[in-house]
Specification:
The chain is of the alpha+beta class and 701 residues long. It is built from 23 helices and nine strands. It has a five-stranded mixed β-sheet, with helices on one face. A four-stranded antiparallel β-sheet has the order 2-1-4-3, with helices on one face. β8 and β9 form a beta hairpin. The radius of gyration is 44 Å and the shape is rod-shaped.
């Protein structure tokens, strides 16, 4: 980062003028300055140095920023103005006055009025250095013209008229020897008096348009722009508190209050442009409002106690005793009100995130009352929105079927950022927030920890509801599957095997009757019965195969899958089945599920993948207590926007029935990868393992 030459030059001028003002001021008695109605030497010049420093800082980051140039120029001007006042006081100490006294008077008393333009220009150009557009530009130009009316009038007005208009006292005697009117314009005194009166009335009116422009920009700002505008708002609040405090002090501190306000405003403007995220502006603004209100409350209470004590006790209490009573009363109320007032202001400024326990307990209470996942997700969204004052919060959860359930609070902006919602390492959803967040929603480190806790709490709740819904859905599917299977078996037995057995029984009876008179006919009838029995045996095998593939018992899981691969293999497709680990003692349900999943995945490869090779891998993981069934092909892969069909959904359902999982993703080679993980440990063992894991996590926390 390089220093800006122009900003550095004006800063050097301001510092030189400040040094000159201080050195010259040391030679002038304060009584002489009071006689000339001049402020103390030094504070104004130092304020000018601060203003020039702020301008140089802005120009260092943004070399052509109009506000940086403006503050640098006005800072140097402010310091030079104070140096001129010091020289005016020093020159008029001598008789005759030293050279340059008249020029110093003109610079300080006449040109110094041009410093009034600083405030409206800052308001109109902050924060991007651009004037308003449209018809507002004309309004602001008129406003600046009204502000310029007084500085222009003071350049040409006679000193006697200017002194009479601003102060009833005559011109101080040391100044009468100077040439006070080098640019005097001869007009009637009444005309000049009217011009000065109108110019002074235009000053407050001319600030109306800049303030309206600031309010419009603040309301339309967002993100970093809103943070910058809040820096200007903080400067306004701080300046107001400074000026109110100065009003309670002796008149000698009036100029100091203006200088302090100038320094605060310059620093705030510079920080707002260069580093708006330097500190938490919301916390700073809230704290300023709180302590300002407490200061006002303290002073008011002090006055009430002192006045009441004086009225009730009269001469029995002196000023010291009254002050002690006031201090005790203020301390008692301060201790009671400070914390509550702080919480109220912080909640108004940044929401409820300043009280994490309140946010977490409120979320837990509301989640307990929620009956379904949609209500719980909406509860989470509203809690985050309320806690962080966010205009939009969305919660998206991946359901068991693979579809996404999205619940939103507020109007969705054009851009959003997603924070993952994970549970035990598995991403189950996302939390959506505005990409360009308002400054009040920008998160500090504490806020990020609170948001992480909220997401963790909601993840557990959403996972529990999701599992409950999956369990209920699994129960319903299980009952439906059992009933469907019973209905199918009943239909097959009643409509198929039942009539066939009745027909065989009838043929046997016919053969018995026919055997005495025609053994040949009886033998023919028995042959027909034998054929019908053979058909019934085939049907029974078909029914048994539907319940459990016989190949699993004949050749094992791997052999059954290889047989299925031989039956389904298409021309040009090579299928390879690999096994790792001992697969001989798998539970029956796991064998059937693995066989069905591999068969369905292979069927999809044959029908849709247009692959040249398919690899089915069966891996038993003894430590994890599960069987991994992975089917990988080198086909066309998954297209964009592919919706899960019945086959893919059935893969997930078969795995979920055993407490496992199944995912369908794109393979690294461009094909498709189906990965199913099936638990093979006894249910009791799995429950004990889960319980031990949960206990370990709780102890670790």
């Amino acid at each position: 980062m390089r220093l800006n030459v122009a900003g550095l030059a004006f800063l050097v001028v301001a510092m030189a003028a400040a040094v000159a003002a201080a050195l010259i001021g040391l030679r002038v008695p304060q009584a002489h300055r009071v006689l000339l109605d001049l402020p103390p030497a030094g504070p104004d010049a130092m304020a000018g140095v601060a203003l020039a420093t702020a301008g140089a800082a802005v120009l260092t980051r943004h070399a052509r920023h109009p506000l940086g140039r403006l503050m640098a120029v006005f800072g140097a001007w402010w310091a030079v103005d104070d140096a001129a006042a010091s020289w005016l006081a020093y020159a008029t100490l001598h008789h005759p006055a030293l050279p340059g006294g008249s020029a110093a008077f003109f610079v300080y008393q006449r040109l110094g009025a041009g410093l009034l333009l600083l405030l409206p220009l800052v308001l109109l150009l902050y924060p991007d250095g651009k004037m308003p557009t449209g018809w507002w530009r004309g309004v602001t130009l008129v406003s600046l013209a009204l502000t310029s009316l007084l500085p222009l009038a003071l350049v040409a007005v006679p000193s006697a008229i200017a002194q009479a208009t601003s102060d009833s006292r005559p011109i101080p005697a040391p100044l009468t020897a100077l040439d006070l009117d080098p640019l005097y314009v001869p007009l009637p005194d009444a005309v000049w008096s009217g011009v000065l009166l109108v110019a002074q009335l235009c000053i407050p009116l001319s600030l109306l348009a800049p303030f309206v422009v600031v309010v419009r920009r603040y309301r339309r700002s967002a993100g970093v722009g809103r943070a910058r505008m809040r820096w200007l708002l903080w400067a306004a609040v701080a300046d107001l508190l400074v000026m109110l405090t100065i009003r309670l002090l002796p008149n000698d501190f009036g100029t100091a209050g203006l200088d302090i306000a100038l320094v605060l405003t310059a620093g705030s403007v510079a920080v707002g442009i260069v580093r708006p995220d330097l500190v938490d502006i919301d916390r700073l603004l809230g704290g300023t409002v709180v302590y300002g209100a407490l200061l006002a409350l303290t002073l008011l209470l002090d006055l009430l106690v002192l006045g009441g004590a004086g009225r009730l006790l009269g001469p029995r209490l002196n000023e010291g005793e009254r002050l002690v009573i006031a201090v005790f009363a203020v301390a008692i109320l301060y201790a009671q009100l400070r914390h509550r007032l702080w919480r109220l202001v912080r909640r108004w400024v940044v929401g409820e995130r300043d009280d994490p326990y309140r946010v977490m307990s409120g979320l837990a209470e509301r989640l307990e009352r929620a009956d379904d996942s949609g209500t719980q997700l909406l509860t989470l969204a509203r809690t985050v929105a309320r806690a962080f004052r966010s205009p939009y919060v969305g919660v998206e959860i991946t359901q068991f079927s693979g579809e996404r359930l999205l619940v939103e609070d507020g109007e969705r902006p054009a851009g959003t950022r997603a924070l993952p919602i994970t549970y035990r390492g598995e991403e189950i959803g996302r939390l959506l927030l505005p990409r360009q967040a308002p400054s009040r929603t920008r998160l500090s480190s504490n806020d990020e920890r609170l948001l992480a806790d909220l997401i963790r709490q909601a993840a557990a709740a959403a996972r529990a509801v999701r599992l409950a819904e999956e369990l209920q859905g699994g129960r319903e599917r299980l009952v439906a599957a059992v009933e469907d299977e019973r209905r199918r078996l009943r239909r097959e037995l009643h409509d198929g095997l039942g009539p066939a057995l009745a027909a065989v029984a009838s043929r046997v009876d016919t053969a018995r009757i026919t055997a005495r008179r025609s053994p040949e006919e009886a033998d023919r009838i028995l042959g027909l019965a034998r054929q019908e029995l053979t058909g019934m045996l085939t049907e029974v095998r078909r029914l048994v195969h539907g319940l459990r593939p016989p190949a699993l018992d004949d050749v094992g899981l791997v052999g059954a899958i290889r047989q299925q691969a031989e039956r389904l293999r298409a021309p040009g497709l090579a299928v390879r089945v690999e096994e790792y680990g001992d697969l001989s003692d798998l539970p029956a349900a796991v064998e059937v599920a693995a066989y069905r999943i591999a068969s369905e995945a292979l069927t999809n490869v044959v029908r849709h993948a247009r692959a040249g090779e398919c690899v089915i891998t069966l891996t038993r993981d003894g430590e994890a207590g599960c069987l991994d069934v992975v089917t990988t092909d080198d086909g066309v892969g998954l297209g964009d926007g592919v919706v899960s069909g019945v086959g893919l959904v059935s893969l997930r359902e078969r795995a979920a029935e055993l407490g496992g999982s199944c995912s369908v993703t794109s393979a690294g080679s461009g094909g498709t990868r189906v990965w199913a993980r099936l638990p093979i440990g006894p249910p009791a063992t799995r429950r004990e393992a889960v319980t031990r894991a949960a206990t370990t996590e709780e102890v670790g926390i």
